[in-house]
Specification:
- The chain is mainly α.
- It has five helices and no strands.
- The longest helix is centred in the middle third of the chain and has 25 residues.
């Protein structure tokens, strides 16, 4: 007595043979050529080229992750507001102050500040 798996296998083989007999000769030739090409061993250069694509993709992902990763991972330090304000003032000393937060008397003699910047002969301060 045959099991259901054996009957399924016999029926599948019969359907395969019938489909192979009804197959167009041009398509059968293309299938044979594709099978021959698939069974031939791949040359080493082609194998190396197949490995370069995933390796390049991995390198690109690694580079993107490295560029996105934060560079400074220090511990957070809480600073008193007066010290934080002076530290920010020192960092922003290269930029002019905002008009809202600056002293209005700074804007009274703008010509003097322009003349001072143009005639500054002193060496830049070292930090």
């Amino acid at each position: 007595m045959t099991s259901p798996d054996e009957r399924l296998e016999q029926r599948a083989r019969a359907l395969y043979r019938q489909a192979a007999q009804e197959l167009d000769p041009a398509i059968a030739g293309r299938l044979r050529a594709a099978r021959r090409d698939a069974l031939q061993p791949t040359p080493p250069a082609r194998r190396a080229a197949r490995l370069l694509l995933p390796a390049g993709a991995f390198a690109a992902v690694a580079l993107a992750a490295l560029m996105a990763w934060p560079t400074h991972r220090g511990t957070a330090v809480q600073v008193a507001p007066s010290v934080a304000g002076s530290a920010l003032a020192q960092e922003d000393s290269d930029l002019p102050p905002d008009a809202d937060s600056a002293d209005p008397t700074l804007y009274q003699n703008l010509d003097f500040y322009g003349w001072l910047a143009a005639n500054d002969t002193s060496a830049p301060a070292q930090r």
